[in-house]
Amino acid sequence: MSASGAAGTTAFVGLGANLGDPAVQLADALTSLADAGVLVAYSGVYRSAPVGGPDQPPFLNLVAELEVPDGPYELLARCQALESAARRIRRERWGPRTLDVDVLLFGDLVIDDPVLTIPHPRMRERRFVLDPLAELAPDLMPASELRAVADQDCVRIADPAELRSLAKSSPEA
Fold first, then answer.
1. How many CB atoms within 10 Å of residue 102?
2. Which of the residues 47, 88, 126, 127 is marked catalytic?
3. Cα angle vertex 27, ends 173, 87, to 5°?
4. Rounded Cα–Cα distance for residues 72 and 114 (Å)
5. Which parts of 59-126 fold into alpha helices (H)?
6. Helix (H), strand (E) at residue 30
7. Is the distance from CB of 67 to CB of 9 less than 8 angstroms?
8. Known catalytic residue at 90
9. Residues 120-129, buried b or exposed e (16+ Cβ, 10 A)?
10. SS3 (DSSP) at 148
11. Across residues 57-62, what is the average pLDDT?
12. Any residues with CB less than 8 A from the CB of 10 and at least 6 apart, and which?
């Protein structure tokens, strides 16, 4: 699905949720990005098994393409504000969450510091990131990387326009 975006750097963020009503949290985050004028497009919705952490429900995931007028640290702050708006509480690494928003790519920029790592350090190990990213930007995803994660539990369950219709249904939908 496409929306008009502001001029700036092309960035990709991964969004996921498995608490509350994940479809609503994802849709609300996309609405906020669209209202801010940075949303360009977003992938279909994927259901995936949790990676690491405690026993928890499956996630709904998608990737959004953005055109951001500011820098990567400002984008990180925007992502954290979306998580706060969804009342995310950080209790344990890889635990369940109302919303997780990760900066995956920011143009061709490479950053490795304690606050931000770009490209995201584990994105190439996670099918729930690679499949929706390949949907938006197939030129960024070599087939070999997609094959390397093909055994992970991740299924496309809805087109972008159907996100709101998933509201009030469980991630198992």
1. 20
2. 88
3. 100
4. 14
5. 72-85
6. helix 22-35
7. yes
8. no
9. beebbebbbb
10. helix
11. 94
12. 40, 65, 66, 67, 105, 107
pLDDT, the chain, mean: 87
Q: Which residue has the higher pLDDT, 43 or 146?
A: 43
| Full-model pTM | 0.88
> What's the CA gap between 171 and 173, in Å, rounded?
5
DSSP letter, residue 152: S
**Comparing 14 with 53, which gets the higher pLDDT?**
14
Q: Is 97 among the catalytic positions?
A: yes
State pLDDT tens for residues 84-93.
887 766 666 6
Instruction: Note the helical H segments in 45-91.
Output: 72-85
Q: How confident is the model at residue 54 (pLDDT cuts 50, 70, 90)?
A: low
* Annotated catalytic residue 102: yes
- Which one is catalytic: 21, 47, 78, 97? 97
Pairing verdict, β 45-48 and 100-106: unpaired
pLDDT at 1: 44
| Higher per-residue pLDDT: 95 or 139 | 139
